[in-house]
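Incident review: delayed structure delivery

Summary: a single-chain prediction request sat in the queue longer than the usual turnaround. Root cause was a stuck worker, restarted by the on-call engineer. No data loss occurred. The affected request and its eventual output are reproduced below so the record is complete for anyone auditing the incident later.

Affected input:
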Amino acid sequence: MTAAQGEAGELAHQLVIDYLVKGAILAAALMILLVGMALMWKKAGRKGRGHDR
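Output delivered after worker restart:
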């Protein structure tokens, strides 16, 4: 294996790790958003709108 192939493999590895980290950050942000929306939905409720369910 030449030095260029080794560097290319290392670069590919770093890119994969980078995408995984960014994906994990995005997933965590979406979970926080969904939990926040669910809490606001529960707090706001449906009372006072004339719809009894």
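Verification: Residues 3-44 form the longest helix (42 residues).
Action items: add queue-age alerting; document worker restart procedure.
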